[in-house]
User: Fold this.
Amino acid sequence: MAHNTLALLGLLTGARAFGPSPGPSLEKQIHTFNQLITQVEVDRAGDANPNVAFWPAQKDAVERAGQCTDMRNLELDYSMISDQQWCLQEICESKATFDECNGAFYLGCAFCEGKCVVAGVMHAAVTQCIRDAYADADPGKVNGQVPAGVVIPSTVTTQFYGMSGVYTGGQVRPGGVGTSAMVWGSYQNSRPPGYRVPIHVHPLGGLQCVNEGPLTLMVEGKPDVTYTAGECVNMPAFTKMTQRVVPGRGGYLVTDTFNSHSCMPTWIVVEPAAYHVQDAQFGVPSDIACPARPDDS
Assistant:
C-alpha cells in the first residue's frame, strides 16, 4: 500500500490548504481517503511504478502526450461555452492574480500558465492535444486488442470534489509558469454486465478501489489483471487502459480517487468511437449564474 499512499499524500504535503470552500471540508476529504487506503492494495502487474517500460509503439505517443502539459501554446476555443455560461470568459479573464482566480474556482476558472482562464475550455484544449498524440497509436485498442464489451458512461456518484491546495512547482511541466490549484475528488462508478469504460488515459494517474466486482483491468504494456472487492490499484499516468466486467459475473462498482491539476482533465478518452463519454464523467462543475445577455429581449 505504500506506493499509493506516498504518491497521493505527497501531492497533499506539497500544498498549502485553502480556507473553507463549498462541499466537504479538507479534513473530511482526508478522512474519506484514509478509509479508502485501509483497503487492500494489490500490484500484480506493476502498476504502482509509473516508470515501467511502455510498448515501443506507445512510447512516442506517451512522450507527445506529455508535451500537452505545456499549455502556453494551446489554442483555446471559447465558442464551446454554453449560452447559460456566456459571462464566464469575461469573469475569469478579469482575475489578474492567482488568488483572484482561485476565488472564482467554483465558478469554473483556473490559473494556467500565469493567467486565469475558463477551466473547461483549457481542459478541452488539453484533451484534443492528447487525443492527437495517440491518434497513430491504436487508440481503439489496448495491447493490440479491441476490448470486449459495449462502451457506456458509468453511473457516477461524486463523493467529494474541491480544491486540495496550491501547487507551487510551476504547473505540471518543469519550468512551468506560476502556481496552480490542485483538485481533490473521489467518485463511485458502476457499470452493469456486458459494458465497459472507454479506452482512456489519466494525465496524473489515480487510485482505484473495487467495492463490488470482480472486474478486469487492461493496461497498455501489462498483462490483464482481475481485481476483486477490497482490492485497490494505481492507475499509471499517460497510459492507455480500460476495464471490463468479468464474463458470467455481475456488474462492478469502483471508487476512483484523484488529486489532479485544475488546468487538466482528470481523464481523457482516446478511443475515437467513445469521445462522447468524455463529458459524462469527471467534468468541471460550475456555480456560475449568468444574467440574461444584454442584447436578449
